[in-house]
Amino acid sequence: MFEINGRTKHLAIIGHPIEHTFSPKMHNFISKKMGLNYIYTAFEVAPEDLGSAIAGIRALGFSGINVTAPHKRRVMQYLDEIAPQAQMLGTVNTVVNHNGRLIGYNTDADGFYRSLLHNGIETKNKDILILGAGGAAKPVCVMLAQHTPKSITILNRTVSKAEELASYIHKTTGFSVETEKSRKHYDIVINTTSAGMAPQLERCPIEDMSFIDRNTFVADMIYNPAQTVFLRRAKENGAKGINGLGMLIYQGIIAYELFTGTILPDSIYNTIVSEVFGQ
Ligand code: ATR
Predict the structure, then answer these.
(1) Is the pLDDT at 1 greater than 70, yes or no?
(2) SS (H, E, C) 79-114
(3) Which of 29, 157, 187, 227 has its CA 20 to 30 A from that of 216?
(4) If you take atom 24 of ligand 1, which residue's CA is the nearest one?
(5) Active site residue 25
(6) Residue 200 resides in a domain
């Protein structure tokens, strides 16, 4: 057990609301495992207090913070520099204090990519179907477009939002995204919608899932519940799949590495899954 003392460095997450966050548990667990003298707490910051909160981070010399809804976009104006990936996504989830300069990063896209790699899934030359076109879809699409898939198709209940996201992806990455389901088979199908998450527990983002079979890999970005209706139905069709826990953990691992400048051992992932999330 590490001791909090005069040399303890500070990390935190800010959001509104914030009480359900898993981040303090996960980051403090990593610090304890690694024997690093950091403490990570959570702060409820109302939108009108965001500027003061960031000034506080500077004044108190925090090593870094994670940023969650609703601050991920607006926080950018208070920072000294935005890393390219965060610039491309237009949102920041990690701020690192580099000797007084606050630099904004986004670890969501890389977190999702690492969770695919962890499951042996390559995206190169794959036909990929994305369900949903909201905030969660954007980092996934930007990341995939940068990893040379064969095709990306975005399907959304509100078609205009799918078209908007497709044109954003084309503009930022140069990759042309489709918005109609024109193929019989997709190698990877990803649910980025909130259908299946409380209070929509019984919902599934698509009705006809007959095109999903044992040659399909499915990823649901929802981690609570651990198995959505979408994931259950896909598995009944023989598909292999993962929920969003991997992304949650990897975006945190990458943020921790940025905060501390320490590369964590690969084994930390499985340790977090079992000891923090009990799975
Ligand atoms: P955020 O930007 O915070 O992710 P959002 O814009 O509400 O939130 O996006 C949620 C996504 O889930 C959207 O793609 C939404 O579809 P619409 O754009 O048509 O609203 C999708 N979604 C939510 N509930 C759904 C449902 N029951 N069936 C299908 N898609 C759903």
Answers:
(1) no
(2) CCEECHHHHHHCCCCEEEEECCEEEEECCHHHHHHH
(3) 157
(4) 195
(5) no
(6) yes
Residue 215: CB atoms within 10 Å = 11
Residue type, 126: K
On whether the pTM is more than 0.85, the answer is yes
Is residue 3 domain-resident? Answer: no
Cross-sheet strand order for the sheet of 81-82: 38-44, 9-15, 64-67, 94-98, 101-105, 81-82
CA-CA distances (angstroms) from residue 130 to 60, 103, 168, 169, 218? 42, 30, 15, 13, 10
Residue of 9, 25, 33, 72 marked active site: 72
Mutate to test the pocket of ligand 1, among 160, 194, 197, 230 (most ligand atoms within 8 A of CB): 194
Per-position b or e across 222-247, b if 16+ CB within 10 A of its CB: bbeeeebbbbeebeeeebebbbbbbb
Same domain, 231 and 257: no
Question: What is the CATH number for 225?
Answer: 3.40.50.720
Whether residue 213 sits in one domain with residue 166: yes
Total count of domains within the chain: 2
Give, for ligand 1, the residue of 138, 154, 156, 200 to mutate: max count of ligand atoms closer than 8 Å to Cβ: 156
- Tell me what pLDDT residue 279 has: 86
Ligand 1 near 32 CB (within 6 A): no
Ligand 1 near 155 CB (within 6 A): no
Asked if residue 193 has its Cβ within 6 Å of ligand 1, the reply is yes
For residue 2, pLDDT over 80 is answered with: no
pLDDT score recorded for residue 66: 98
Crossing angle, helix 108-118 and helix 137-145, to 10 degrees?
Answer: 70
